[in-house]
Design goal:
The protein is built from 2 helices and 4 strands. The strands form 2 sheets. It has a two-stranded antiparallel sheet. It has a two-stranded antiparallel sheet with strand order 3-4. The radius of gyration is 14 Å and the shape is elongated. It starts with 8 loop residues before the first helix and ends with a strand.
Length: 71
């Protein structure tokens, strides 16, 4: 949504673009990601699956606030 790879004004005119965008920040001990509300269920599935695979907890802060910890 923001940053050097963000769409330009011409690309932003695409009405379906918001459904394909994500915003993220990567730190030493976390990855923060945000997507369109319509994409939330799919994003939660992907991130919780990746968390299990890589042994990382996933905090669902905009969902119900729970933290999904790896098994």
């Amino acid at each position: 949504m923001n940053g050097p790879d963000a769409p330009n004004e011409d690309e932003a005119d695409d009405p379906d673009l918001e459904d394909r965008l994500a915003d993220y920040s990567i730190g030493a001990h976390l990855i923060y990601a945000a997507a369109a509300w319509e994409q939330a269920p799919q994003a939660v599935d992907v991130f919780t699956s990746l968390g299990q695979t890589h042994g990382a907890a996933v905090a669902l802060v905009s969902d119900d606030g729970r933290i999904v910890r790896p098994r």
